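Please decode residue identities from the backbone states below.
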């Protein structure tokens, strides 16, 4: 019997990948350069080939004050990730940060990074207590965002 496996991805250099089944974290990785995280994705697809895999990617966009070159590079990486998953014929859902942060009652970064980080940590502790307790001292915003 196949399981539903959700692979959350927070794209970008400080992003993360999280593998979740029935509210249990099966694995979590810091995002790496595109050729490295493609290897992680291929490994996930191979390992969970008998399962119902769904990739949920944070839908990203430009924000005021970000440099043109960095935004182009970021957008390129996001597009590259989508293209790889499409090429590997994977199910993809994208969700904007506004949607998932509203769901977990996490304020936007405009209201302060400390408040955003604190609310994110609380949401992960509530939703994935086993993972949170095992990784308390290893907070990584990309992984925590990928989990949520």
């Amino acid at each position: 019997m196949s399981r539903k496996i959700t692979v959350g991805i927070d794209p970008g250099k400080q992003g993360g990948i999280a593998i979740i089944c029935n509210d249990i974290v099966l694995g979590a990785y810091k995002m790496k350069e595109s050729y490295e995280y493609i290897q992680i994705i291929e490994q996930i697809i191979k390992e969970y080939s008998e399962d119902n895999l769904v990739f949920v990617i944070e839908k990203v966009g430009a924000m005021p004050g970000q440099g043109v070159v960095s935004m182009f590079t970021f957008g390129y990486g996001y597009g590259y990730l989508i293209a790889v998953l499409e090429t590997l014929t994977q199910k993809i859902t994208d969700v904007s940060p506004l949607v998932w942060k509203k769901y977990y009652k996490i304020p936007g970064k405009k209201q302060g990074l400390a408040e955003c980080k604190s609310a994110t940590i609380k949401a992960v502790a509530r939703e994935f207590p086993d993972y949170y307790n095992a990784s308390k001292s290893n907070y990584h915003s990309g992984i925590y965002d990928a989990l949520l």
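Observation: The beta strands are 4-10, 16-21, 24-30, 52-58, 91-95.
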